[in-house]
Amino acid sequence: MGIGGSGRRAAVAVVGSMNIDLIAYTRRAPGPGETVIGERFQSGFGGKGANQAAMARLLGADVSFVGALGDDAYAAMTLENFASLGVDASGVMRVPGSSGVAPIWVEADGTNRIIVVSGANDRVAPEHAAAAVRAMARLDVAVGQFEIPQAATAAGFTAARARRAITVLNPAPAAPIAPALLSVTDWLIPNEVEFGVLGGTSSDLSDAALAAFAARTGTRLVATLGSRGAALVQRDGRVVRLPAPPVGAVDTTGAGDAFVGAFAVGLALGFDELDAVRLGISCASDSVTRPGTQASFPAPQRAAAILAEVRGI
Q1: Of 22, 40, 155, 240, which one's alpha carbon is 20 to 30 angstroms from that of 129?
Q2: Cα(200)–Cα(213) distance, integer angstroms
């Protein structure tokens, strides 16, 4: 599992965010100055970076994480979760103050209100990210998102590129891409909403719009399309759309992160890019059949079966 044709494990670095999700379920959200009694509470591990690292690790890759945590109890919880998964957290810096948290209110009809407090995620230093990537024993693919400063991700990607690693950017939440980061990005993986914001094309997901965006940015492009799978822009500009299998979706939270983490592993294993996309789609589709974020990702045995199916073993 997670081993390429050479017999070597895939090596993936994630430069990104870590959050603790604090979820309160209530019949209705309180108004100004009002207190209501909630029905239940649960906490979970989140942050797009941590989610993508978890998916890559579940597929058997050697995963190293680069980011920042505070000096609170949530930091200890996050590190314990990484230890249980087998993610190398030696690249996680510590800063005074809060770790990243996301208080979430969920009402009876499923409506939610989310306040993301970036905390330590906002304090990842570019020089730390670069040094952490340079210190890794092996590296095939580096992954980043937009939940830490773009300068830190750019520094990590620059160090990864110097080691001939592939760089994969998930531009989420959607925001303009800094030129310095774009210049060291090999692959962009936005979802439909993010592509509309980045490409300025609103709802235009035509082959022409996708190909034009890839040409304009000088990157390879995969757009994730939810239940419709994903669209890959090939090197010659042609667009291939790969469908997702029909599944009974229960909760789509984290599906995009499952795709990115799995796609990165596919590239690290030397998969043909179409098979890397298929691996991403398979893991994302499997995850939506269960509730939660990291908790919904396929367990190692199931992940190994998905990997074998895509490889055709």
Answers
A1: 22
A2: 10
CA distances from 25 to 46, 112, 251, 252, 293 (A): 18, 9, 15, 18, 16
Going from the C-alpha of 166 to that of each of 68, 109, 140, 214, 223, the distances in angstroms are 23, 42, 6, 17, 18
Residues 12-66: pLDDT tens digits? 999 999 999 888 888 998 999 999 999 989 889 999 999 999 999 999 999 999 9
Cα(189)–Cα(260) distance, integer angstroms: 7
Catalytic residue among 21, 88, 140, 257: 257
286 in active site? no
**Architecture of the domain delimited by 11-17+48-99+121-311:** 3-Layer(aba) Sandwich (3.40)
For strands 187-188 and 166-169, give the pairing: parallel
| Whole-angstrom distance, CA of residue 14 vs CA of residue 7 | 22
97 conformational bin, left if phi > 0, alpha if psi -120 to 50, beta if neither:
left
At residue 109, the pLDDT reads 79
Half-sphere exposure of residue 31: CA atoms within 13 angstroms, side-chain side: 0
User: Which residue reads 């990590």 in tokens?
Assistant: 156
Write down the residue that tokens 């074998």 correspond to: 308
